[in-house]
Design a protein that fits this description.
Blueprint: H1 5-8, E1 12-15, E2 20-29, E3 36-43, H2 45-50, E4 59-62, E5 66-69, E6 73-75, H3 77-87
Parallel strand pairs: 1-6
Antiparallel strand pairs: 1-2, 2-3, 3-4, 5-6
Length: 95
C-alpha cells in the first residue's frame, strides 16, 4: 500500500502495547535509494518520561518497527523498545 507523506503528518503513533508516542512530525528518507528510514515523532509528555528524545526534542522511530498505517500508525512495542535500549534512549523501565 502506498500513502502520501503529507497524509501522515500529525498522525498519532502508538505501540502495540498501547503507549502513545506522539504525532508524526517529519519523515527521514535515504537520499541514495529513496527508502523511508524513520519517522520523526513529536512525543507526548508520557513518552518523554519513558524515552529520551533527540536534541531537537523528537523521537526517531525506525520504519522497520511499523506494523500498521491507517488512522493511527502502529509500531511493534518490543521491537521499538529493543532499538531504544540499544541506543541508551530508555529513561524509565515502566514498560
Amino acid at each position: 500500500m502506498k500513502v502520501r507523506a503529507s497524509r501522515l503528518r500529525d498522525k498519532r503513533v502508538v505501540t502495540t502495547a498501547g503507549l502513545v508516542l506522539g504525532e508524526v512530525y517529519d519523515i527521514l528518507v535515504d537520499e541514495k535509494n529513496g527508502d523511508v528510514v524513520a519517522f520523526l515523532v513529536d512525543p507526548t509528555d508520557e513518552a518523554k518520561r519513558i524515552l529520551r528524545p533527540e536534541k531537537d526534542g523528537l523521537l526517531v522511530v525506525p520504519s522497520h518497527t511499523f506494523v500498521s498505517v491507517g488512522d493511527v500508525l502502529v509500531i511493534d512495542h518490543n521491537s521499538y523498545l529493543a532499538h531504544m535500549h540499544k541506543l541508551g534512549k530508555v529513561v524509565s523501565n515502566v514498560l
